[in-house]
Amino acid sequence: MKRHLLAAVGVCGALVQFGCSEAKVETYQVQIENSLNEPRSFETVEIDLNAVPFAERVQASAKSYDLIDFSTKTKITSQAVDVDGDGHFDQLLFQPNIEAKATKTFEIVPSEEIVEVENNPACYSRFVPERTDDYAWENNRVAFRTYGPTAQKLIEDGLPGGTLSSGIDAWLKKVDYPIINKWYKKELETDGTYHEDTGEGLDNFHVGVSRGVGGIAVKKDSAYHISKNFVSYKRLTTGPIRTSFVLKYADWNAGEDVITEEKHISLDYGSNLSRFKIKVKGTDHISAGLTMHENDGKISVSRDKGYVSYYQPHEESELGTAIVSDPEMILQVEEYQNGKQDENNVYTQLNVQEGYVVYYAGFTWKESGQFSNAKEWENYLTEFSKKLQFPLQIKYLK
After folding, report:
1. Is 127 exposed, middle or buried (0-12, 13-18, 19+ CB in 10 A)?
2. Is the pLDDT assigned to residue 6 strictly greater than 70?
3. What is the rounded CA–CA span in Å between residue 43 and residue 271?
4. CA distance 142 to 371
């Protein structure tokens, strides 16, 4: 994969040389350390631009930032992100390739050139009003969607075309290029349908009122309670490294408790798992669920590695789903069945701390060629968990 080798740029201290012309540009170095005895790739590093002591005039004029591999003098793929929406970039995202027990140095170069984000970048998400009001997101490996207020109202009014669910749908893609816009156009503007595989994958993952892949519930006494569809959304970013957005929900009841729920969701390049940061009030725990469909799959739980996996036969193929979290945040895991349609889920109950819960949820489909069986899927989850527990370390150099 040569996605990191985009352009050659010479660097010498604070002098950045582009071709034959020279311009003095204020730069800054960061060092990334891999503490594990294995090489690392496709892990997103978040550089805190507010921790980089550029002069105020530089920060005010910077329209973006470039990132240079200091050893090879090459520019690598990065993504500047305005986290708080104040018009200034807060983070610079990138995915370094680092050997075992190694460190690498990178140089941050402010740029006054505006970076145009392509209409359908590798990590992409959008609201989909033309298909009722889905919100869909994807990267080079997986795609997801969930449902909005119009879809809910159609169901409540007894009209066709609606969906009443806060579950997370999985779109089973087997290509590494974007398919969201292409599949919706195929479904809505042609005689084709995304429910049939014509070479790129298909949507044949049933959600209903289940939790799908990582939807939440709150257990009260012996019953699980869930929200309805999201009521509003805000897209934060799309790009080569990450897409992120926020979904808000109307308050809902778990017994006599009133639950306030807000999902902050992101998906990074190269990952099978979306990150869910749930802002919640009214409970000290939530349960992230995985639908069990026909109850013919295998549940695998590794408390010390912080993952719960459900691997099942699926439409003449195989499908694996999973929840991954900090092992210390997992309170219990429950296989819940009540005999009702779509209400059979594997639940991972997680502790709420300071009003938040963080976990990862995602899937693999055998037809994608990514993983061949349950063992390979669980090996991936083990490695994913290890990297969460021992993240790449950032050192800001003076």
Report:
1. middle
2. no
3. 8
4. 13
Residue 351: both structure tokens together = 């502790």
Taking only the tens place, the pLDDT of each residue in 278-306 is 999 999 999 999 999 999 999 999 999 99
**Structure confidence at residue 278 (pLDDT):** 98
Q: Which of 3-17, 34-48, 136-150 is the least confident region?
A: 3-17
**Distance (Å, whole) CA 90 – CA 62:** 12
The confidence score (pLDDT) of residue 212 equals 98
Is residue 169 classed exposed, middle or buried when 0-12, 13-18 and 19+ CB atoms within 10 A define those classes? buried
Task: Give the per-residue pLDDT at 14.
Answer: 40
* Per-residue pLDDT band at 398 (split at 50, 70, 90): low
As given in the structure block, the two tokens for residue 165 are 């669910």
Please report the pLDDT score of residue 15 as a whole number: 37
Its sign, for the CA torsion 178, 47, 26, 10, is negative
Helix (H, G, I), strand (E, B) or coil at 43: coil
Tokens of 36: 């594990």
Q: Which residues 6+ apart lie within 8 Å of 162 measured at CB?
A: 132, 150, 151, 152, 153, 154, 155, 156
Give the Cα separation of 355 and 332 in Å (integer).
19
Q: Which stretch of DSSP H or E encloses residue 385?
A: helix 374-389
Q: How much is the pTM?
A: 0.92
State the first-to-last Cα distance of the chain, in angstroms, to the nearest integer: 32
The whole-angstrom separation of Cα 267 and Cα 83 is: 15
- Per-residue pLDDT, 23: 52
pLDDT > 50? residue 311: yes
Task: Specify whether the CB–CB gap between 80 and 47 falls below 8 A.
Answer: no
* The two structure tokens encoding residue 234: 């805000």
CA distance 162 to 142: 24
Q: What single letter denotes the amino acid at residue 368? A: S
Q: Which of 225, 204, 205, 257 is nearest to 338 (CA)?
A: 225
Bridge partners of 60, per DSSP, are none
- 322-335 b/e (C-beta count within 10 Å ≥ 16 → b): bbbbbeebbeeebe
Q: Supply the DSSP symbol for 342.
A: T
Calpha distance 344→207 (Å, rounded): 11
Residue 133: count of CB within 10 angstroms of its CB: 20
Distance CA 152, CA 162 (A): 6
> How confident is the model over 230-274, as pLDDT tens digits?
999 999 999 999 999 999 999 999 999 999 999 999 999 999 999
